[in-house]
Amino acid sequence: MWSVSDTRRWEALRQTLTICENTTLPTLPKPTDAELDRFERDTGFSLPKSYRAFAKVCGPGELAGDFHFTAPGYPKNERSDLAALNAIIRADEPRGPNFETFIESFCRDPEQVRRMVFFCGTGYGDWVGWDPEDVQDLVGREYGIYQWHGKQPSKVADSFAQFVEVFCLARPGLDAKRLRERRLFDPDVDLSELL
Predict the structure, then answer these.
(1) Residue 59 neighbours by CB distance under 10 Å
(2) Model confidence over 158-189: pLDDT tens digits?
(3) Domain 4-194 has CATH 3.30.565.10
(4) Helix, strand, coil abundance in the chain, percent, nearest 5
(5) Which 3 state secondary structure label does DSSP give 52?
(6) In the chain, what are the domain boundaries?
């Protein structure tokens, strides 16, 4: 399903990370091919091959202190499950505007938000997802990645790998001291060979 080079890319990246175990939550197993396939069947969305490899190597969790990634296969853990995240985003809020009213009021293209598949939440309250109509690589099933902060989504990457390696880990103004203190990413490691 995914290429050996995608798996090696994420294994190499994982080696640069300091994995912090959460002592209050159990460590989750990595998603299986069957769980990834089930998500695709249930939603009709073909996950990017690079994301599938990432999920199998890293699983759900936090990266660089700001990005919480989800993956299929955790229906009882809505913070980590890909389908649950999308259901939560689209759910009507009892004390706030409902999803449809909100996107109709604030988005120039509400259809884009409706079709997006969100895979990540940020520490500053944004959602990040794929736009299935912004196909960047048909063979690799890569789609444009957009950050949605309540108004019109903004494109942040052309592929999942670019999102992780550039937007999450090598973005301008990244506070290396804070990341080192949080022990989530070693900013002294050169990732250029992975790009």
Answers:
(1) 18
(2) 999 999 988 888 755 555 444 433 333 333 33
(3) no
(4) 40, 20, 45
(5) helix
(6) 4-194
